[in-house]
Structure formats: C-alpha cells, structure tokens
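To whoever is on call:

I kicked off a structure prediction for a single chain this morning and the downstream step that reads the tokens threw a length-mismatch warning. I double-checked the sequence; it's 307 residues and nothing unusual in it as far as I can see. Pasting both halves so you can look.
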Amino acid sequence: MTPDTIYITDVAPRDGLQNQAVHLSTEAKLDLIEHLVQAGVNSVEATSFVSPKAVPQMADAGDLIGRVQTRWPQLRSSVLVPNLKGLERAHAAGAQEIAVVLCASETMNRKNINMGLDAALDVCEQTLAQAHALGLRTRAYVAVAFDCPFEGETPLAAVLHLAARMVEARAGEIVIADTIGSAAPLQVKQRLSALRDVVPSDRLAVHLHDTRGLGAANAWAALEAGVRRFDSSVGGIGGCPFAPGAAGNLATEDLVLMAQRCGLTSDISLDALLDAVDFAEAQLQKPLGGRASAWLRRERAKRREAL
C-alpha cells in the first residue's frame, strides 16, 4: 500500500442495490459490474448471502458470484454473509472473499439480525474462523461506528474494542462504517486516528454515506488520518434497509475526483464511471450521481464535442 494511492471497493452491486424498489436482473447486475471493471475498478462487493425473504434483491447471489468470478477472474469480488449458514452457501457458490457485519450497538444488532451484541460478536468470530479454515479472504464491518439511529452517539471505546476483536479474529480488512451518514470530519479524523492504534494501517478501511452532504469531506478527514482504503458506490446508490435515515453511499465519482484533485491516484476513469452512472439510472429509473456529477457530465460533453 502506497501513500499516494487510494484503494476503492465499489459496493453498488450489493449495498447499492439491496434496498432499491426496482429489482435488477442478474444480467443487469453483471452489466453494471462490467461498467465498473471498464472504468478501472478492481474491487467490488458483488452480492450478499442473506435470506431472500429479508432482502429479495439479493436472491440470485449464488448464480451471480459464480458468473462474476468466471467472467472477471482478476476482479476482487467479496460477498456479505450474515452467519455460518450464509458462509456455507457462499462457499458452495464459489465465493473467494466474504464479509461479516458487526453493529457497534445492542439495538442495531437486534434490528439488523435479531440478536444482541455479544451474540453477534460470537457469530462474526465463528464465521471468520470458518472462512479462514476454508481458505477464503475476509472483511469485517464495524457498523454504526459513529452514531446509531436508535441509541445516539456510539462510544469510541466500543468501536475500538470491536475492531480489536476483529483483528484478533484475523479479518483481512476492518471496515469502519458510518452507516447512517451522520459523521463529521473532525469526528472521522479522531476516530480513525485512534483506530490506527488497534488496526494495522494496511487493513483499515472506511465506509461512508453522504446523508448530510459530508461524504467527501469525511473521506478527506480519513485520508488525513492515514486511511487509504475506501468503500464507495457509483452514483451514490445505496442505504441500509434496517437503518432509518441511511441515505446513499459516498459516490465513487466524488471520491475519485477528490483524490485526483489532491494528487492521489486510484487508476479509475471518471468518464467511464459516468457511463456506469448512466446505465444504473436507466435500470433503476431514477436520477443518480454524486455531488460532482453535473459538473463531470458537462466536462465530459465538452471533451466529446472537441473530438
């Protein structure tokens, strides 16, 4: 990991699509991932092996992940699993990397997976242990790491404790999630700076939402804290279906533009990202795009007219 490079996992295929009124077909999801790959994205969160009754948009997870890995063997594609049963399904489908989610508050765990924090921690640790035994790569989310929609501000001590437990469980990447998009830059910098004392820098990532318009500012604060791994979603698609007020994710195009303007590289094409946004708009039948999308589209039009 080099300090002048940011590493992006685009979560649109999973986090972006899981709460949409329009359910995309497997072929449309593959086309969206194709657009991301063409843009230079080399890591995606492809789907989740949760109950189809709870999240019907992910009912095709088994078929999708097999086709993704066959079509793009070079692509890092992770899948969300809620427990050992989900891990079993993911492994049977051929998944090579799994992610678990641990909410940092009692109430959010109960709303999300119908169990308390201690039980959820046990499930995550068991799932990670079994994933390692199967030779899979792993990620672990610490969700509501800034604020919980039910309990208010999440104590930093709780976040540090859970992140440390995920390190002990050998999660390959620990992702600190601003699940409802309530964080502010100073809070982001302070928390991620503190987390670097318990999580190795090359394994620490951040997942930001843009609910209050501070997504890019929070990403800059994370950069100042030394973080170089980010989740984002092309077009800003997404939002947790179990967290009231969780609007769209930080848009990948906003993150890439900020990085470019600040002398950092991601090897991702902004023009090609806009093509992905256009495709997703047509599929989901609603306007999409990050804060900079209107300007980026005007600049793209100018370049194309000049050709």
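Update from on-call: the warning came from a stale cache, not from the record. Cleared it. Sanity check on the structure: The chain has a mean pLDDT of 94.
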